[in-house]
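**Sequence, structure tokens**
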Amino acid sequence: MPPAAHPSMTESTIPRWLAWAREIQALAQTGLHFARDDYDQSRYRRLIELAAELMADNTTAAAPLLEHAFLAQPGYATPKVDVRGAVFRAGRILLVRERSDGGWCMPGGWADVGELPSAMVVREVWEESGFRVAARSLIGVYDANRDGTPLAAFHAYKVVMLCEILSGEATPSSETSAVDFFGRGAIPPLSSARTSPRLIAEAFAHLDDPHRPPAFD
């Protein structure tokens, strides 16, 4: 079986202005971390201002808010991590409906510092759907900004794990308004920045073939 990689997701899927803004912000954040004097700090802060202005000119976000968010990221700049749980029952996948945009997605969210990847997935599934699960295998590791909607301020990776239901019942949360299972031919409108059709297809492929290798970008 060929490797489950996806080389079709390339830089061309990201607007050039967004790639530039992210890179400028990351370089400035790292520069501030290592800056030795006020002069260097001033230059790197100016780069952060420019990154915020570039992003604000191409979105509805305000430059001061973006600048504040950029300055709140300390240390060497690295991608953020988003975790998702692929949970099945009777051949149907568990999805939750996001209150923020009304779209459906696999339960998950930003990773927390100090927690195991598998534990984060298990916790997110419980909090957003009401089901206790166990993480059984890795489905894939993706470049989140090249999958679905790439218009996010920060670069991120997405980790998806196949999970098994242990107990619980469908229970919406403060972040989700509905919880349900869907067959592969009846997937509802997705919250694409959280879960894309590509991730759904790969989850079903791992359900069909337990020996399928993890996908990766």
